[in-house]
Amino acid sequence: MSEEKSLIDLARTHMEKAGLDPNSSVDLENLKPEPTPEPPAKVSTAPAPVSEAKTVDVVDTTYAEALKSLLVNVETTQAWRRVSLPSRGKAYIQCEEFVEIRPFTFAEERKLRSMKNAKDGEEIIRSLFNACVRGLDHDSMTLFDKNYLLFKLREISYGDEYTIEPECQHCSAQNKLSVLISEVPVNYVPDDYTEPFKVVLPDSQQEVTFVSPRSKDEFYMQSIDKLTDNLWRFMVSVGKYTDEKLKKAFIENTTVKDVAFLREKIVSSDYGMQLDMSFTCANCDEVSKAVIPLNEYFFSVS
Fold first, then answer.
1. Whole-angstrom Cα distance, residue 270 to residue 188?
2. Which among 210, 195, 197 has a CA at the least distance from the CA of 251?
3. If 185 and its partner were Cys, which of 18, 31, 155, 274 is the partner (CB 3.0–4.6 Å)?
4. Strand, coil or helix: what is 174?
5. Residue 228 covered by a domain
6. Residue span of the structural domain in which 242 resides
7. Where are the beta strands (DSSP E) in the chain?
8. Which residue(s) pair with 161 in the sheet?
9. How does the average pLDDT of the chain come out, rounded?
10. pLDDT per residue over 77-132, tens digit each?
11. Which helix (H) or strand (E) holds 222?
Protein backbone atom coordinates (compact mmCIF):
# COMPACT_ATOMS: atom_id res chain seq x y z
CA MET A 1 0.00 0.00 0.00
CA SER A 2 1.60 3.26 -1.15
CA GLU A 3 2.21 6.08 1.26
CA GLU A 4 -0.29 8.89 0.89
CA LYS A 5 1.35 12.06 -0.51
CA SER A 6 1.07 15.34 1.25
CA LEU A 7 -0.35 18.46 -0.32
CA ILE A 8 3.18 19.86 -0.69
CA ASP A 9 4.37 16.75 -2.51
CA LEU A 10 1.41 16.96 -4.90
CA ALA A 11 2.25 20.57 -5.59
CA ARG A 12 5.91 19.77 -6.31
CA THR A 13 4.86 16.99 -8.69
CA HIS A 14 2.47 19.35 -10.48
CA MET A 15 5.16 22.01 -10.86
CA GLU A 16 7.65 19.48 -12.26
CA LYS A 17 5.12 18.41 -14.88
CA ALA A 18 4.47 22.06 -15.75
CA GLY A 19 8.21 22.71 -16.16
CA LEU A 20 8.50 24.89 -13.07
CA ASP A 21 11.18 24.89 -10.38
CA PRO A 22 9.81 22.89 -7.45
CA ASN A 23 12.14 24.75 -5.09
CA SER A 24 10.47 28.10 -5.78
CA SER A 25 7.74 29.31 -3.55
CA VAL A 26 4.32 27.89 -4.27
CA ASP A 27 1.19 30.02 -4.37
CA LEU A 28 -1.58 27.60 -3.56
CA GLU A 29 -4.20 30.03 -4.85
CA ASN A 30 -2.64 29.88 -8.32
CA LEU A 31 -2.77 26.09 -8.27
CA LYS A 32 -6.55 26.08 -8.19
CA PRO A 33 -8.03 24.60 -11.35
CA GLU A 34 -8.84 27.25 -13.89
CA PRO A 35 -12.56 27.91 -14.17
CA THR A 36 -14.25 26.20 -17.06
CA PRO A 37 -14.86 28.82 -19.75
CA GLU A 38 -18.46 29.56 -20.49
CA PRO A 39 -19.67 28.41 -23.92
CA PRO A 40 -19.75 31.20 -26.51
CA ALA A 41 -23.06 32.92 -26.92
CA LYS A 42 -25.11 31.57 -29.78
CA VAL A 43 -25.17 33.80 -32.85
CA SER A 44 -28.63 34.35 -34.20
CA THR A 45 -29.04 33.37 -37.87
CA ALA A 46 -32.23 35.35 -38.27
CA PRO A 47 -31.89 38.20 -40.78
CA ALA A 48 -31.33 41.60 -39.35
CA PRO A 49 -34.33 43.87 -39.53
CA VAL A 50 -34.32 45.92 -42.72
CA SER A 51 -34.53 49.60 -42.10
CA GLU A 52 -37.15 51.36 -44.18
CA ALA A 53 -35.81 53.29 -47.19
CA LYS A 54 -35.86 56.97 -46.69
CA THR A 55 -38.17 58.70 -49.12
CA VAL A 56 -38.11 62.26 -50.27
CA ASP A 57 -41.44 63.99 -50.26
CA VAL A 58 -42.07 65.99 -53.41
CA VAL A 59 -44.10 69.09 -52.86
CA ASP A 60 -46.12 70.69 -55.60
CA THR A 61 -43.59 73.45 -56.19
CA THR A 62 -40.81 70.97 -57.02
CA TYR A 63 -42.79 68.24 -58.79
CA ALA A 64 -41.95 69.49 -62.29
CA GLU A 65 -38.27 69.78 -61.42
CA ALA A 66 -38.20 66.27 -59.94
CA LEU A 67 -39.87 64.75 -62.99
CA LYS A 68 -37.54 66.64 -65.31
CA SER A 69 -34.51 65.25 -63.49
CA LEU A 70 -35.87 61.70 -63.89
CA LEU A 71 -36.41 62.20 -67.62
CA VAL A 72 -33.18 64.05 -68.39
CA ASN A 73 -31.91 61.21 -70.62
CA VAL A 74 -35.24 60.99 -72.42
CA GLU A 75 -35.28 64.63 -73.45
CA THR A 76 -32.73 63.99 -76.20
CA THR A 77 -34.68 61.15 -77.79
CA GLN A 78 -37.92 63.12 -77.52
CA ALA A 79 -36.42 66.23 -79.08
CA TRP A 80 -38.17 67.92 -82.00
CA ARG A 81 -36.55 67.36 -85.39
CA ARG A 82 -37.11 69.11 -88.68
CA VAL A 83 -38.34 67.33 -91.83
CA SER A 84 -39.09 68.68 -95.28
CA LEU A 85 -42.63 68.23 -96.59
CA PRO A 86 -42.98 66.54 -99.98
CA SER A 87 -45.21 69.49 -100.95
CA ARG A 88 -42.49 71.86 -99.70
CA GLY A 89 -45.33 73.88 -98.17
CA LYS A 90 -46.53 75.00 -101.60
CA ALA A 91 -49.91 73.28 -101.20
CA TYR A 92 -50.89 75.70 -98.43
CA ILE A 93 -51.55 79.40 -98.09
CA GLN A 94 -49.22 79.81 -95.13
CA CYS A 95 -46.76 77.01 -94.41
CA GLU A 96 -42.99 76.67 -94.41
CA GLU A 97 -41.19 74.00 -96.40
CA PHE A 98 -40.22 72.30 -93.14
CA VAL A 99 -42.24 71.13 -90.16
CA GLU A 100 -41.05 69.70 -86.86
CA ILE A 101 -41.92 66.28 -85.49
CA ARG A 102 -41.15 64.36 -82.31
CA PRO A 103 -41.60 60.69 -81.27
CA PHE A 104 -44.70 59.42 -79.51
CA THR A 105 -44.58 59.24 -75.73
CA PHE A 106 -45.72 56.06 -74.02
CA ALA A 107 -48.95 57.77 -72.98
CA GLU A 108 -49.64 58.77 -76.59
CA GLU A 109 -48.80 55.29 -77.83
CA ARG A 110 -51.37 53.85 -75.43
CA LYS A 111 -54.01 55.86 -77.26
CA LEU A 112 -53.13 53.95 -80.44
CA ARG A 113 -53.68 50.67 -78.57
CA SER A 114 -57.10 51.85 -77.45
CA MET A 115 -58.50 52.12 -80.99
CA LYS A 116 -61.66 50.07 -81.33
CA ASN A 117 -63.08 51.24 -84.64
CA ALA A 118 -62.38 53.49 -87.61
CA LYS A 119 -63.98 56.52 -85.99
CA ASP A 120 -61.80 56.12 -82.89
CA GLY A 121 -58.78 55.75 -85.14
CA GLU A 122 -59.44 59.01 -86.96
CA GLU A 123 -59.73 60.98 -83.73
CA ILE A 124 -56.65 59.37 -82.17
CA ILE A 125 -54.51 59.92 -85.26
CA ARG A 126 -55.65 63.53 -85.37
CA SER A 127 -54.71 64.08 -81.72
CA LEU A 128 -51.32 62.41 -82.22
CA PHE A 129 -50.54 64.55 -85.24
CA ASN A 130 -51.53 67.73 -83.46
CA ALA A 131 -49.33 66.74 -80.49
CA CYS A 132 -46.30 65.44 -82.42
CA VAL A 133 -46.24 67.74 -85.48
CA ARG A 134 -45.87 71.50 -85.34
CA GLY A 135 -45.92 73.92 -88.21
CA LEU A 136 -49.01 72.40 -89.91
CA ASP A 137 -52.30 71.25 -88.41
CA HIS A 138 -53.65 67.79 -89.21
CA ASP A 139 -56.88 68.72 -90.99
CA SER A 140 -55.11 71.04 -93.44
CA MET A 141 -52.50 68.49 -94.57
CA THR A 142 -52.70 67.03 -98.03
CA LEU A 143 -53.01 63.26 -97.92
CA PHE A 144 -49.56 62.93 -99.50
CA ASP A 145 -47.90 65.08 -96.83
CA LYS A 146 -49.85 63.29 -94.09
CA ASN A 147 -48.83 59.86 -95.35
CA TYR A 148 -45.19 60.92 -95.43
CA LEU A 149 -45.31 62.37 -91.91
CA LEU A 150 -47.06 59.25 -90.62
CA PHE A 151 -44.16 57.08 -91.83
CA LYS A 152 -41.60 59.51 -90.40
CA LEU A 153 -43.36 59.49 -87.02
CA ARG A 154 -43.29 55.71 -87.10
CA GLU A 155 -39.57 55.77 -87.95
CA ILE A 156 -38.52 58.01 -85.06
CA SER A 157 -40.90 56.42 -82.54
CA TYR A 158 -40.37 52.69 -83.16
CA GLY A 159 -37.32 52.44 -85.42
CA ASP A 160 -36.40 52.58 -89.08
CA GLU A 161 -37.02 48.89 -89.79
CA TYR A 162 -40.60 48.03 -90.72
CA THR A 163 -41.80 44.46 -91.35
CA ILE A 164 -44.28 43.79 -94.15
CA GLU A 165 -45.71 40.53 -95.55
CA PRO A 166 -46.57 41.01 -99.23
CA GLU A 167 -48.17 38.23 -101.25
CA CYS A 168 -46.45 36.92 -104.37
CA GLN A 169 -48.44 37.67 -107.52
CA HIS A 170 -47.31 34.37 -109.07
CA CYS A 171 -47.62 31.70 -106.36
CA SER A 172 -49.59 33.56 -103.65
CA ALA A 173 -46.92 32.83 -101.05
CA GLN A 174 -46.57 35.25 -98.14
CA ASN A 175 -43.13 36.87 -97.99
CA LYS A 176 -41.81 38.47 -94.80
CA LEU A 177 -39.69 41.49 -95.70
CA SER A 178 -38.01 44.30 -93.81
CA VAL A 179 -38.27 47.82 -95.21
CA LEU A 180 -36.09 50.70 -94.06
CA ILE A 181 -38.40 53.71 -93.97
CA SER A 182 -35.47 56.12 -94.34
CA GLU A 183 -34.64 54.52 -97.70
CA VAL A 184 -38.13 54.72 -99.23
CA PRO A 185 -37.88 57.24 -102.13
CA VAL A 186 -39.67 60.57 -101.69
CA ASN A 187 -40.65 62.89 -104.54
CA TYR A 188 -40.81 66.62 -103.81
CA VAL A 189 -42.82 69.16 -105.79
CA PRO A 190 -41.02 71.34 -108.35
CA ASP A 191 -40.44 75.05 -107.86
CA ASP A 192 -43.40 76.02 -110.07
CA TYR A 193 -45.94 73.92 -108.14
CA THR A 194 -49.09 75.83 -107.20
CA GLU A 195 -52.58 75.12 -105.89
CA PRO A 196 -55.42 75.26 -106.77
CA PHE A 197 -55.12 73.35 -110.05
CA LYS A 198 -56.90 74.03 -113.32
CA VAL A 199 -57.98 71.48 -115.93
CA VAL A 200 -60.27 71.56 -118.95
CA LEU A 201 -62.72 68.67 -119.03
CA PRO A 202 -62.65 66.61 -122.26
CA ASP A 203 -66.39 66.61 -123.16
CA SER A 204 -67.92 69.72 -121.63
CA GLN A 205 -64.78 71.76 -122.32
CA GLN A 206 -65.39 73.56 -119.05
CA GLU A 207 -62.44 74.71 -116.95
CA VAL A 208 -62.52 73.31 -113.44
CA THR A 209 -60.44 74.75 -110.61
CA PHE A 210 -59.87 72.30 -107.77
CA VAL A 211 -57.68 71.52 -104.75
CA SER A 212 -56.13 68.23 -103.62
CA PRO A 213 -57.86 66.29 -100.81
CA ARG A 214 -56.90 67.09 -97.22
CA SER A 215 -56.79 64.91 -94.15
CA LYS A 216 -60.22 66.18 -93.12
CA ASP A 217 -61.57 64.76 -96.42
CA GLU A 218 -60.47 61.15 -95.91
CA PHE A 219 -64.04 60.09 -95.22
CA TYR A 220 -64.91 60.90 -98.85
CA MET A 221 -61.96 58.83 -100.12
CA GLN A 222 -63.10 55.49 -98.73
CA SER A 223 -64.49 54.22 -102.03
CA ILE A 224 -64.75 55.27 -105.67
CA ASP A 225 -68.50 55.76 -105.37
CA LYS A 226 -68.18 57.95 -102.31
CA LEU A 227 -65.43 60.00 -103.95
CA THR A 228 -67.47 60.41 -107.14
CA ASP A 229 -70.50 61.60 -105.20
CA ASN A 230 -68.33 64.20 -103.46
CA LEU A 231 -66.13 65.46 -106.30
CA TRP A 232 -67.90 68.81 -106.11
CA ARG A 233 -66.41 69.34 -102.63
CA PHE A 234 -62.91 69.63 -104.13
CA MET A 235 -63.99 71.99 -106.89
CA VAL A 236 -63.34 75.68 -106.33
CA SER A 237 -65.21 76.58 -109.49
CA VAL A 238 -66.56 75.21 -112.77
CA GLY A 239 -66.54 77.71 -115.59
CA LYS A 240 -67.17 81.04 -113.87
CA TYR A 241 -69.40 79.63 -111.13
CA THR A 242 -68.56 78.80 -107.51
CA ASP A 243 -72.03 77.96 -106.17
CA GLU A 244 -72.01 74.59 -104.38
CA LYS A 245 -75.44 73.49 -105.67
CA LEU A 246 -74.42 74.30 -109.22
CA LYS A 247 -71.13 72.40 -108.92
CA LYS A 248 -72.95 69.36 -107.58
CA ALA A 249 -75.57 69.53 -110.34
CA PHE A 250 -72.84 69.84 -112.97
CA ILE A 251 -71.16 66.62 -111.80
CA GLU A 252 -74.50 64.77 -111.85
CA ASN A 253 -75.34 65.89 -115.38
CA THR A 254 -72.03 65.92 -117.26
CA THR A 255 -70.58 62.87 -119.02
CA VAL A 256 -68.94 59.81 -117.48
CA LYS A 257 -65.75 60.76 -119.30
CA ASP A 258 -65.70 64.22 -117.68
CA VAL A 259 -66.26 62.73 -114.22
CA ALA A 260 -63.62 60.00 -114.62
CA PHE A 261 -61.10 62.55 -115.92
CA LEU A 262 -61.68 64.94 -112.99
CA ARG A 263 -61.66 62.12 -110.44
CA GLU A 264 -58.30 60.90 -111.72
CA LYS A 265 -56.81 64.37 -111.55
CA ILE A 266 -57.99 64.88 -107.98
CA VAL A 267 -56.50 61.67 -106.59
CA SER A 268 -53.29 61.62 -108.62
CA SER A 269 -50.07 63.21 -107.44
CA ASP A 270 -46.48 63.52 -108.54
CA TYR A 271 -45.13 63.99 -105.01
CA GLY A 272 -44.95 62.08 -101.74
CA MET A 273 -43.51 58.75 -100.65
CA GLN A 274 -43.14 56.21 -103.42
CA LEU A 275 -44.73 53.19 -101.72
CA ASP A 276 -44.74 50.97 -104.82
CA MET A 277 -42.03 48.32 -104.53
CA SER A 278 -40.74 45.12 -106.16
CA PHE A 279 -39.49 42.00 -104.42
CA THR A 280 -38.24 38.53 -105.32
CA CYS A 281 -40.47 35.79 -103.91
CA ALA A 282 -38.66 33.43 -101.54
CA ASN A 283 -40.92 30.57 -102.66
CA CYS A 284 -40.94 30.74 -106.47
CA ASP A 285 -38.07 33.19 -107.10
CA GLU A 286 -40.29 35.37 -109.32
CA VAL A 287 -40.36 39.17 -109.09
CA SER A 288 -43.62 40.66 -107.80
CA LYS A 289 -44.90 44.16 -107.13
CA ALA A 290 -46.54 45.40 -103.97
CA VAL A 291 -47.44 48.57 -102.10
CA ILE A 292 -45.90 49.22 -98.68
CA PRO A 293 -48.98 48.97 -96.42
CA LEU A 294 -49.94 50.06 -92.94
CA ASN A 295 -50.18 46.73 -91.14
CA GLU A 296 -50.19 45.36 -87.59
CA TYR A 297 -46.45 46.05 -87.28
CA PHE A 298 -46.76 49.74 -88.11
CA PHE A 299 -47.32 51.02 -84.58
CA SER A 300 -44.88 48.65 -82.91
CA VAL A 301 -41.21 47.74 -82.88
CA SER A 302 -40.63 45.25 -85.71
1. 8
2. 210
3. 274
4. strand
5. yes
6. 194-269
7. 81-84, 98-101, 133-134, 161-164, 177-180, 186-187, 197-200, 207-210, 235-238, 272-273, 276-280, 287-291
8. 180
9. 84
10. 778 999 999 999 999 988 999 999 999 998 888 887 777 776 777 888 899 999 99
11. none
